[in-house]
Specification:
The chain is an alpha/beta fold and 183 residues long. It has a single domain, classed as 3-Layer(aba) Sandwich (Rossmann fold). It is 32% helix and 19% strand. It has 5 helices and 5 strands. It has a 5-stranded parallel sheet with strand order 2-1-3-4-5, with helices on both faces. The mean pLDDT is 94.
Length: 183
């Protein structure tokens, strides 16, 4: 059965190494008959969470702020799989991805929880110059534990200094295979 997959791409570069992982994953997922909606967060107007606890999860736009998260909320609400993609910045995910994740909290507030549980799954795609992914993976594991989402796996591509360095590396094939495995 076809799955609805949402990708939150936290790369600042549309043609960067993390975006190359997103592209390969998408090709694999679509070849398996899934529907993929990808959000390039760096190109969106998304403000930081205000911590106001004013969200109402059942609204079309559950957050009090009116910005481009309004496009992401309904997609995440109805998704089966949420993929987090990011370069590794200071041993964690990019600010673009962290900001969007913080704002997803509105889907847990007030009138019902449309984020936690609900049979959702997730995967993590990351690229970096180095290989120190431990802290990012620890955060990801804790996030999935909190959300009660199934971990479908991750692709961690180290040794990629410049955009395009990932081309021809095995992690591209791994991202494709991970996407294709979702059924």
């Amino acid at each position: 059965m076809s799955k609805k997959i949402v990708i939150l791409n936290g790369s600042p570069r549309k043609t960067g190494n993390a975006s190359a992982l997103v592209k390969a994953f998408t090709e694999g997922a679509e070849s398996a008959g899934n529907t993929v909606t990808s959000f390039f967060l760096a190109g969106m107007d998304i403000h930081g969470c205000k911590g106001c606890f004013g969200g109402h999860s059942s609204r079309d736009c559950p957050c009090v702020q009116k910005d481009d998260m309004a496009q992401i909320y309904p997609a995440v609400k109805t998704s089966d799989v949420v993929v987090l993609a990011s370069p590794l910045y200071y041993w964690t995910m990019s600010g673009q991805l962290a900001t969007a994740l913080d704002r997803l909290f509105a889907l847990e507030e007030a009138d019902g929880n449309f984020l936690r549980g609900n049979g959702k799954s997730s995967a993590l795609l990351m690229a970096a110059e180095g290989h120190g992914f431990d802290d990012a993976v620890l955060y990801y594991d804790h996030l999935l534990e909190h959300l009660r989402w199934k971990n479908l796996g991750h692709v961690l591509a180290g040794g990629n200094m410049n955009p395009g360095d990932i081309k021809g590396k095995t992690e591209i094939e791994q991202a494709y295979a991970l996407g294709k495995s979702i059924q």
